[in-house]
Design goal:
The protein has 508 residues and is of the alpha/beta class. It has a 16-stranded mixed beta sheet that branches. Helix 3 crosses helix 4 and helix 5 runs antiparallel to helix 10. The radius of gyration is 23 Å and the shape is globular. The N terminus is likely disordered.
Length: 508
């Protein structure tokens, strides 16, 4: 039985049982309604006086509970709780700190890796604790089939270990092709660790996962949710996509593992995405992110020591001399962090723009700060261009995107709809054609506040930044610019959908 089906059945059964229980307990539907309303008032009071989230999010939740007293309250109990109140054991914290210290010492001993000439990277270092590293060979992969074949080639060359994390891993032709290769690598003595998000990859059959484990692959779900009603972490997902091979090569970006990411889909004519292949010291930062996710939910005291004690194989420092030398800074963050690292980094680099800001994002749902930052940049004479999908994969996300267009246009921002027969899933940003970001991070509140994300900041002038600029220009050539005249012709139905999506966007 698939994980999602279990969740839906269990959620429905428990909710129905709860309603009938309270109906029987109070012997009157009126009393039950009064009880629910009192509970809603208590939750609302908690939101107003004690919760630390922003006012917009608070108001959206309050409105949801007011208009839908049963459903709104249930959704808040499932999805709305404060993520920073999650508690981890002393062993989990110890493992995390041990891995963090090991990485800090590793980079301290390799001072020649630090890209000291990048002034902006120093600011991001103070925000995140991660420095920009030089000596990398970077490859921007803008086609899903190309990216998948490159991944397969790198996996075939693995000599010691292969680490994979995917928000979505599907057991279709694409997922099975990689799985069979991983099984083959295990027979060669290669360590393979596969981690997937427990909600994003809900469709994975347990039988299929058991087959991977039987083949010798270590498989682990990240925050598996079998019972949403009993879970405290349903809404806080790990959205990263990353592969690390021998600690020397890493792949990160927007591409999950499934047929659609190779444009094998009937819904769209083409799936436009972007991944980044990293060969060099920055791959070690991605390794650190993967291992942090891998060990964080273990209760064994030696979980981190297993990797840190074998530093030469998991954290190699003897990179061969490479012709290219590009500077790359890996930033990552999540809902349990006290600071919004990637969000603040995005705001920082946008604020440093002097000529242009170019953004491509499938889900463009900015918070008040990021929207104001972009509007202020445009009104200051900086050219801001944003590409969003012309055809959405989900109605709520699509109308959430379009609900912000009027605010963008009135500030002088150029907004474009990508090819309306294809889907734009690429997540990248370019500042002044001199700095580019590629990663799993959407320009939306979920990525900024609720998801675990990872992004690479690439400093130019460099071949890779120039390639990403060319990719943006190519995407523009396949896009249609949105005008205020077009917006004025929107149907009443579309306007209503946009207003509702905008109102509930803090909950997306």
């Amino acid at each position: 039985m698939k994980n999602k089906l279990q969740q839906m059945i269990l959620t429905t059964v428990l909710f129905v049982i709860s309603v009938f229980f309270f109906y029987w307990l109070f012997d009157s539907f009126v009393l039950l309604t009064i009880f629910i309303e009192l509970l809603t008032i208590l939750v609302a009071s908690y939101l107003i006086f004690f919760d630390q989230r922003n006012a917009t999010s608070k108001f959206a939740w309050l409105f949801a509970m007011l208009m839908l007293p049963y459903v709104g309250l249930l959704l808040f109990l499932l999805l709305g709780r404060n993520q920073q109140k999650r508690r981890f054991s002393a062993t989990q914290k110890k493992n995390h700190q041990q891995l963090e210290r090991h990485l800090a010492q590793l980079f301290s001993n390799q001072e020649h890796w630090i890209a000291k000439e990048q002034t902006l990277s120093k600011e991001l270092y103070h925000l995140s604790g991660n420095a920009a590293l030089r000596g990398n060979v970077l490859t921007s992969l803008s086609d899903g089939e190309q990216a998948f074949q490159q991944l397969l080639n790198d996996v075939r060359q693995a000599k010691h270990h292969i680490h994979l994390f995917y928000f979505i891993y599907k057991a279709d032709e694409t997922g099975n092709e990689l799985a069979e290769l991983l099984k083959e690598k295990v027979t060669q003595g290669i360590e393979v660790r596969l981690m997937y998000d427990g909600v994003g990859s809900y469709h994975l059959p347990f039988e299929w996962l058991d087959q991977l484990r039987a083949a010798g692959i270590e498989v682990r779900p990240y925050d598996l949710v079998n019972s949403p009603l009993l879970s405290t972490r349903l809404n806080w997902r790990n959205h990263r996509k990353m592969v690390v091979i021998d600690g020397e090569i890493a792949h990160i970006g927007g591409m999950n593992l499934g047929n659609e990411y190779r444009s094998i889909t009937d819904k769209f004519s083409y799936w436009r995405d972007t991944n980044l292949r990293i060969k060099g010291p920055a791959a070690l930062e991605v390794q650190g992110v993967f291992l942090n996710d891998w060990i964080y939910f273990e209760q064994e005291e030696n979980a981190a020591a297993f990797f840190t004690d074998q530093t030469t194989v998991y954290f190699p420092t003897t990179f061969t001399e490479q012709e290219e030398d590009e500077n790359c800074q890996i930033l990552f963050g999540g809902p349990y962090d006290k600071e919004r690292i990637i969000h603040d980094a995005f705001m920082d680099v946008i604020g440093k723009a002097t000529k242009s800001i170019k953004i491509a994002s499938p889900y463009f749902v900015p918070d008040e700060e990021s929207l104001s930052t972009l509007r202020r940049a445009a009104r200051s004479g900086i050219r801001v261009q944003i590409i969003i999908p012309g055809k959405g994969d989900r109605a709520l996300s699509y109308f959430g995107n379009t609900s912000f267009i009027d605010s963008l246009l009135t500030a002088g921002i150029d907004v474009y709809f990508y090819d309306k027969e294809a889907f734009l899933h690429a997540k990248y940003m370019i500042i002044d054609d001199q700095l580019a970001t590629i990663g799993s991070t959407n320009f939306d509140m979920r990525s900024f506040y609720l998801n675990h994300e990872i992004s690479a900041f690439i400093y130019g002038p460099s071949k890779t930044v120039a390639t990403i600029v060319d990719q943006f220009n190519e995407d523009l050539s396949k896009s249609e610019r949105v005008t205020q005249k077009q917006r004025a012709k929107r149907s009443i139905s579309q306007r209503v959908k946009e207003k509702l999506s905008a109102f509930f966007s803090p909950l997306l």
